[in-house]
Amino acid sequence: MNVFDFKIVISSYKTSYETTAKLLIESLVNNNFPKSQILLVIGGYENKSEITYQDVRTIKVNHNSYDHTGLIEIIENKHESDYWFSTHDTCVAGSDFINFIIQFKHKKDYTSITDMGWLNMGMFHKNYLKRNSDYILSMKNCSKIRAILSERVFTRLENYDYYIPDYECIRSLEDQNIYKDNKKRNVLYFKNIDLYKYQSYEALNIMKPNFSNIKMELM
Question: What is the pLDDT confidence band of residue 149, given thresholds at 50, 70 and 90?
């Protein structure tokens, strides 16, 4: 796989994208990932429109479906790519992230971040999205609780692969708030993938995955 075999879709929200998605896009560009291969989808608007943000194609949509926002846009409007890496906006890519993705042998149509399938993040083949479009579209305008409870569903729809086991994801027990907002967050660090996820306490309390906990700052 090379950088033109897949695109990255980022799901974001209208009140936060200028803080959260900005940092993620910058980290991907620092990985030498082409901006033309990034699609930012921002939920929460009354009317749909398209802009360019950070030199990236950006779609503002008239629904908010949390981590499903980007995949719904891909399916509904037939955006083209053989593979899509779907990610939350509250992530930051380390310097080895893109190299890891390129070198990984993708043998299944869905590769989850971890073996348990938390976060609904990972690499989706276009055929997987087509086969499972009814479920994905059913998440349109879902509640926050339903979005959180939907985690791990993708691993149950079909056979899947994963990048790392859960125990190779480290959760810092120190409060992390790189966005300077009013939410308390832990940082999840996915070892080997070299990806950071800034996770709200609300989601962590529901998930309670088997991540390794440490008391230190990861960034």
Answer: confident
H/E stretch holding 94 reads none
pTM for the model stands at 0.90
CATH number, residue 107: 3.90.550.10
pLDDT in tens, 83-94: 999 999 999 999
Q: Please say whether the beta carbons of 106 and 84 come within 8 A.
A: no
176 occurs within a structural domain: no
Q: How many domains does the chain have?
A: 1
On whether residue 73 sits in a domain, the answer given is: yes
**Whole-angstrom Cα distance, residue 62 to residue 107?**
35
Q: How many whole angstroms separate alpha carbon 198 and alpha carbon 196?
A: 7
pLDDT tens profile 159-174: 999 999 998 998 876 6
Q: Is residue 195 in a domain?
A: no
CA distance 84 to 81: 7
Question: Residue 37 in contact with residue 2, Cβ under 8 Å?
Answer: no
- 135 assigned to some structural domain: yes
% pLDDT > 70, the chain: 89
Sheet holding 110-114, edge to edge: 49-53, 56-60, 38-43, 6-13, 83-88, 122-125, 110-114, 161-164
Beta carbons within 8 Å of 209's beta carbon, 6+ residues apart: 114, 116, 118, 166, 169
- From CA 129, how far away is CA 196, in angstroms rounded? 25
Q: Is 50 exceeded by the pLDDT of residue 216? A: no
